[in-house]
Amino acid sequence: MYFIALATDYDGTLAHDGVVAKKTLTALERFKKSGRKLVLVTGRELPDLKGVFPELSLFDKVVAENGAMIYTPASEEERVIAPPPEPKFVARLKRQGVKPLSVGRSIVATWEPHQATVLEVIKKMGLELEIIFNKGAVMILPSGINKATGLAAALQDLRLSPHNVVGVGDAENDHAFLQACGCSVAVDNAIPAVKDTANLVMRGARGKGVEQLIAKLIKRDHAIVPKRHDGIVLGSSGGDDTYLSPSDTILIAGSSGIGKSTLATALTERFVESGFQFCVFDPEGDYDGLEGAVRLGDGSSAPTKAQVLDLIAKADSNIVVNGLALRVDERPDFFADLLPGLSSFRRRTARPHWLVIDEAHHLLPKRRDDTRAVLSLELPGTILITVHPEAISTDALRLVTAIIALGPKAKDVVKVFCRETGIEPPKVIPSPKGARVLFWRPQAGKKVKTVKVVEPRQSLKRHSRKYAEGQLDEAGSFYFHGPENAMNLRAHNLMIFAQIAEGIDDKTWEFHLRTGDYSKWFRHQIRDKDLARETAEAEEDKTLSAEESRKRVLDAVRRRYTAPATAPE
What we know:
Layout: E1 5-8, H1 22-33, E2 37-41, H2 46-52, E3 61-64, E4 69-72, E5 77-80, H3 87-95, E6 102-103, E7 108-111, H4 115-125, E8 129-134, E9 137-142, H5 147-158, E10 165-169, H6 175-180, E11 183-186, H7 192-197, E12 200-201, H8 206-220, H9 227-230, E13 232-237, E14 240-244, E15 249-254, H10 260-274, E16 278-282, E17 294-296, H11 305-312, E18 319-322, H12 331-349, E19 354-357, H13 360-363, H14 371-374, E20 382-386, H15 394-397, E21 402-406, H16 410-421, E22 436-440, E23 449-453, H17 464-469, E24 478-480, E25 489-491, H18 494-503, H19 506-514, H20 517-524, H21 529-540, H22 546-562
Parallel strand pairs: 1-2, 1-10, 2-3, 10-11, 11-12, 15-20, 15-21, 16-18, 16-19, 17-18, 19-20
Antiparallel strand pairs: 3-4, 4-5, 6-7, 7-9, 8-9, 13-14, 13-23, 21-22, 22-23, 24-25
Helix pairs in contact: 1-8, 18-22, 19-22, 20-21, 21-22
Organism: Mesorhizobium ciceri
Keywords: Hydrolase
GO molecular function: magnesium ion binding; phosphatase activity
């Protein structure tokens, strides 16, 4: 379930001549029974609203006075989020003959054509007030207060994101809150300006339109919105943008070092720009320093389930869950323990909007027989990143709605996916060139196309924490054994490498130096060409003593990798 709440205007939308029809009330009750929330957003003052709408208890929150007041029907708590009207201002309007004149906890309201008089009084008194129109009504509120600000406050109480709210309205004062919602809807009687900017326009007027909307939401949920309205741009193909939807489950795959993490980084930047909350599962420290996110865990301490769930509850917090301190065989258990709690939270709030699971074959491995139990029936807004799609749980692969394949083996990614899931492979698979990737929606019956993907603005130190503090496998580690294999000292990361290098004798150090072992390891296992190049220069300089060459190599390592994660690059 993606759309968790419906935010609706009252007069002209929910109600006709101030009265809500029984069929409309029945539709609202059905919406609540589906597990969703209701928010009423109105320009009316609360006492007036209670008098005309006794069924107010149906709503989880009420935004009254055009955004100035938040009311909770269940507890009857009233919270005014704007200052009260200036008594001298109200008195002057009365002296100027402005009537009728209604004064609320923050709002002051009248009718056209008194707007000219109101504006003149505001200017003469030098007040920071705004005039908002609503089909002939003239509402005066403190600057910056409108239905959008009121809705934001109500959603904060409910711990919901505006992305997961459908807003419906009809008049000028509804513009702000409708545009703040993940989907904006106009009823048929709405003014043209509201219809023009809405994502959807209902055929029914007022309550009938709301009833139709609720039926669509319960049946189709997020599918009511075209992807271009709330999607993230992956890139362009043939002049058209390609979008990823928060309802998608995406597989990003390709050979090692081909740019999968770089693409994921670019997508997180789009998430931040659009206000989507995201959580990155980072088993190997590839996303340290990711902008707009808080890191949990490092090379020496593993994150906990409680830490992740507590932080994700804050709607404005993005998280990188660093699993460097977890052994490879511990990662599936950690994820299996966390995923049910995270899935439960997502069912209630639809947050985080995006999960990015790097090294997905570690966290959702094919070899585990309990993956189906920890998976929800869907993984919406999820990006699975891997070098080995064939090693990911088949249950997880069958949830994939979009594939992004990178590099020279991109075609193989599509073929492997089809083999593992039993889906008929596409007849034609083009070859991506340059900065392009393959993009395919396997269940949509569409052709595989090549897309020029977005580039990230930020530069990450790829793998720096993994190589500095993590635990490389036996094949990837460095072994100090000396000229006669007299020892077998394993360095499973760069910090251990530096510690051992400082303690071994000069003969052992120089043996590996002169055979070029250090630069080979840095180039092929650490995959750092610059470090390898600088080290090779020391290896080839016969004038350096063992002490001098050792200092030069270790200084190069520490300068790149063992500085604090927050140190400037």
